[in-house]
What does this fold into?
Amino acid sequence: MPLSIEEATAELNSWGLKLSPSGRHVLVLQLRNGSQRILVADLEQPQSQPFVYPLSGGVIKWADWASNDRLLFCAQFWVGKDRRAIPAEELEEALFAIPVTRVFAIDHDGGNLQMLFSDNWEVLESKNLSRVTNFLPSDPKHIIMPAWYENSLDLFKLNIDDGTSERIALGTRRTLFWFTDADGNPAFRLDTNWLGSRVNILVRKGPAEARGRDLDWDKIASIDPISEQRDAAPEFYPLVPGPEPETFYVAARPDGSDTTGIHLYDVVHQRYVKEVRSEPGFDIVQMFYKPRTHEYVGAAHYADRWVNDWVDPALQAHLNGLDEYFGPEIDIHLIDRATLGNLWLLYTTGPRDPGSYYVYDLDKHRVLEIGHQFPAIDKDRLGSTQVLRYKARDGLEIMGYLTRPPNTSAGDRPPLIMMPHGGPEVRDTLAYDPLVQLLATRGYQVFRPNFRGSSGFGKSFADSGKREWGGAMQDDLTDALRYLVDAGYADSERACILGASYGGYAALAAATMTPDLYRCAISQAGISDLREQLKSDRKAMRGNEDEWEYMKRQIGDPSDDKQMLEQRSPINRVQDVHIPILLIHGDEDQRISLEQSQAMEKALRKAGKDVELLVVEDAGHSPTRKQRQTIYPAILDFVEKHLPATPAAPALAAP
It folds into this structure.
């Protein structure tokens, strides 16, 4: 039975699970009857009644344990101009609503509910109090949080029993983020420059005991907030305190290294102490350490699937055993560990696992199922995925994920959907994708290539996509289809291309540059005119030169590369289109304007081509769950019309 639109766009059943330090209790965020709630269950007495804290009129952003007996949660509410809370049932009709976030502490059985900063009404004037800098595992009564106070982002130590606060360090009006050492002393501060175009990483000078205005800072690095967010490998970024005083673990790419690794950094002397972990060809994504001693224990990165790599052979043996237990299609994410017990909290996902939670007992080698994010979805109905590798025409090796319809046999060649990802500096993974399964369960196979320019494979691989929109990146998609045909997976006459954002541009580029390759094309929030998009970006980024330089490096210079950009803009090649095109765009898209799709539709219609435009009301660049309930049916109807999974039977001649 095909996956339904309702199942593909369902709300999460549960999320945000966390183990108490002892491992006895687990907290779960749940949605019930339209309202969110926190549930705390006793793993040692699973038959006992769990504690439930319902939240009405707001949204729980996160929850976590501060100690065995006390937990924290962040809630977002909305207030009107009169600063009064707006009831949930009135929110959609409200003409003016301001989001306000607050952090609360509560006992695990529901006692002693306390809002933090309860003693500081000046701080409570801030709309956003949502971030914890340090949970202070060695001090279960306190945490460290940043907050706006007297026009600067300062750092505070809070008592989680009574909500009172003490300011321990002063920031500035341009401070964005704080990092503290193991004892909660300020270690790093991230400030923007006056234009907001760079983020300066500052390191504390002098003794840790200094407070407030007595702290001195040195600038040790400067990063582009846009390119660092998008690039495959950051040059330098603080993570957590190191095992020795004045040391910090950082994610970095020193001395021209191609991939991001974990390094130990000397804060006082501002130098690297040693490389802790790196992986040739892949960027390290996550680091694991002991909360009390800050000893490094392992790291994780994405290769074909999620790879957990730990120092202790005994612990790695457990991870290897879990890999065998769950199978090769499942990514296993270790999301929490009991600091006082031998329990791990696991999150799994894969092509046929929309998201599940388990507790693993290392002593008993036992896996306990806790819950599923979408329990109504039966994995046996979903299509399986395999990793494929192919060579691009210039010899570059590229990997991708091929999802086949359920019950597909070797040698079968179902109609293919080529689905390039957005970004382009992101990457596809093995994780569950509802749109992929919507198509697979209707008889389509879907290929998602990590073409050059994708992230996670090191800086050189990401940089190889710079200024290759419509060039080598597009050739990678063409070469992917040819590989799939030559390898016997696909039929060259039965393929369509579908993508969003950069993927939407790639779909339009395919329809105009390789017009005979596909039967149809779907572009969601795609760019049709590269020069016009760069003009729009230039206007939006005026005064932010670093961001503008990144866009020119990524796509091209509108002046120096005028001819190239015009040749690679689908809107200038509509006469070459031979296939039907569906354009989908949100009318509130601030990243890529609706005008990009409207102009493309106008040009295609003027050229007499087959085109449809779906404008999604109130949708931004990333549609919401409800907006996908409009988008997904349109995609399915279009594909089934122009590339039917089951070809119509030939008409019988009259006797």
Residues 239-263+272-307 form one domain. The chain is about 20% helix and 35% strand.
